[in-house]
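>> Question from a student workshop board

For tomorrow's exercise we were told to take the sequence and the ligand below, predict the bound structure, and bring the output to class. My setup keeps failing. Could a helper post the expected result so I can at least see what it should look like? The ligand is adenosine-5'-diphosphate.
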Amino acid sequence: MKNTSISLRLTFWFSAIFLCGFVLFGILMWVDLAYSLSQGRDRTLSRRAARILDVLQSTADEPAVIRETRFDQLTDVIPEGNLIQVFAAGGDRLLPRNAAASDFPWPPISPTPRGRYRTLNVGSRSYRLLDLPVNAGQDYVIRVAGQLEDNRNMLTRFTAGLAAAAPVMLALSALAGYLLGRRVLQPVDQITAGLRSINIGNLSRRLPVSPSGDELERLAETCNQMLSRLEDAVDRINRFTADASHELRSPVALIRGVAEYALRNPEIDGDSREAFGEILAESLEAGRLVEDMLTLARADAGHVAAMFERVELGEVVEDVCARLRPTADGKNQSLVLRTQTPAWTIGDRSSLRRLFSILLENAIKYTPAFGRIEMELAVSSARATVTVTDSGIGIAEALLPRIFDRFARADPSRGEVSGTGLGLAIAKWIAGVHGAELTAGSREQEGSVFTVAFPLAE
Ligand code: ADP
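>> Workshop helper replied:
Here is what the output should look like for this input. Compare the format with yours to find the bug.
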């Protein structure tokens, strides 16, 4: 039961409780019916005895033969009339006179008749027996018997009916429990779906709150309050990152400027030149890191300085390729460009340029000299796809799923070239802003392929 859904658990409990209730109700009804039937049977026997008493009283002063005739007439019309006898107080049977009139195995009459009912089993059949002492001029004992078979049959039919109804009731209660559970938990599903759709990029979204005044309303409100606190905290972190990056720009630029100035001095010694060279390289790297952090902090804060317009992707791709071709040539890499134009999309030209630059720069950076790099733009009916394929060092299988995360970089022991680890995160963000899908595939030591699929403009 641990992993089952609440609605299934509700169904189970609902059915179990319903079944227990049904069984209890059945037992109570059965007992009540059995009691009523037995009471009814006893009352019938008592009524029959009363009618016999009437005969005895009305013929008290008549000759015996009149009494016998009246008795026979009555027992002929009473149901089960053959199961009625009248005894003298001493125990001799008086009526019916003909002992053979009944082949019923009567038990001997007790000398002190109890005037009570008892049950008699004759073979497989059961009978109810009443011995009623009366006085009608003289003392008699009226004995009346009646079969219990009809009552038994009725109880058996009732039990069979209950047993047949139990599975149907169980199925109905399970269905009712399931539907009820689903209905009650539907708002929980809506809250779950709402929360799932909220991520770090759209923390300003809130769950819809229905004014039902119940626990679910309070749950939705609590979630919304938590989202507000999270949004506040994330805003503060974003502002801090943006402010810190912004503040770091000037000192980093200053360090680079000083290093460049020092290197321009022909009189500095070799060691100093080497040291200033390192400072220059590191400050360039730090400058790039600061810029990337600022870009992402602004992206998180929703400050997108973009101008969306109709852009022909072929032009942008060719532009980026032309700009980076000298770098590839410097590593003796072959850079092949294939474009299928026109490929119109809606986008911000400079952001797109940055996106393709990140992918192509990485391809050049992580492909050894004399490697092969291909950039291709293909157009299908609904999409324009830019693919950058290289024959470089590839990406480890463990890193691939996190490759677009911030600061995700390969193991430094692989001795890779320097970088910020933010390029692909920026690329992913730019793709997202354009409604495009950026994916990566790679095999270590064989190469990587990055694909961006853009929706085509109308
Ligand atoms: P970096 O500034 O380190 O290049 P990126 O976000 O652009 O940051 O890339 C993250 C990491 O992904 C890189 O450090 C590198 O390990 C790996 N990577 C990216 N592109 C490639 C590629 N074409 N071939 C192999 N590894 C790559």
